[in-house]
Design brief:
Blueprint (H helix, E strand, L loop, with lengths): L1 H23 L4 H23 L10 H16 L2 H9 L1 H22 L4 H22 L13 H12 L6 H20 L10
Helix pairs in contact: 1-2, 1-3, 1-5, 2-3, 2-5, 2-6, 5-6, 5-7, 5-8, 6-7, 7-8
């Protein structure tokens, strides 16, 4: 139940995020759908390659594919004022996708009895993979490569799952909510990691 719920939440959130970025870059409708799908499923594909799951399981996720397509269609055809409001919510959709997929990636690696290092890496790559691909295809500098705190929250989620601090649907959803809140706080207050410019 937890796996499916996080999968649906993350897929829809990242599909919307990808669609909004594509519209900001003035992509046509096909470009919007392609960027949205890449954002929604890119992190999962990277995770599957990393932890040894079949990559072609993506084609067995009919419900997720339909959910992503429906979400992107709604965003593309909604009135202009709602699109502008949604653009301001881009970081929120991104935070939802990041948190849901980070926990889901950690659960997947943990269920295969991988060591905690692999669980953390799976959490990070599942959480940020789709967003990195999206930003690169849109010609943007990926958020995770800036000094802004982003991947840290995926790392934290993976660590908590790997250490088995949380267990069960309610605790996983609580962790999901906490990660979303902290990601949004880092955006609002511009929390930064140390960086050097040369």
């Amino acid at each position: 139940m937890t796996w499916d719920l996080l999968n649906i939440i993350g897929t829809i959130a990242f599909a919307i995020s990808g669609a909004l970025v594509a519209m900001e870059e003035d992509y046509d409708i096909l470009g919007v759908f392609i960027l949205g799908l890449v954002t929604a499923f890119g992190g999962g594909i990277i995770r599957n390659v990393l932890i040894g799951l079949p990559v072609d399981t993506i084609w067995e996720q009919g419900l997720l594919l339909k959910s992503a397509l429906l979400a992107m269609a709604i965003v593309f055809f909604m009135p202009e004022k709602f699109i502008q409001y949604s653009k301001r919510s881009l970081n929120f959709f991104d935070a939802i996708g990041l948190s849901a997929f980070a926990i889901q990636g950690a659960i997947a690696a943990s269920s295969m009895n991988h060591p905690i290092s692999a669980i953390i890496v799976a959490a990070i790559l599942t959480g940020i993979g789709g967003g990195i691909i999206r930003d690169i295809l849109a010609g943007r500098k990926p958020v995770v490569l800036r000094e802004e705190i982003y991947a840290v929250w995926a790392l934290l989620g993976g660590l908590i799952v790997g250490l088995k601090i949380v267990n069960g649907t309610i605790e996983y959803m609580l962790l999901f909510g906490i990660l979303v809140v902290f990601r949004m706080l880092s955006v609002k207050y511009k929390w930064r990691l140390p960086h050097r410019a040369l």
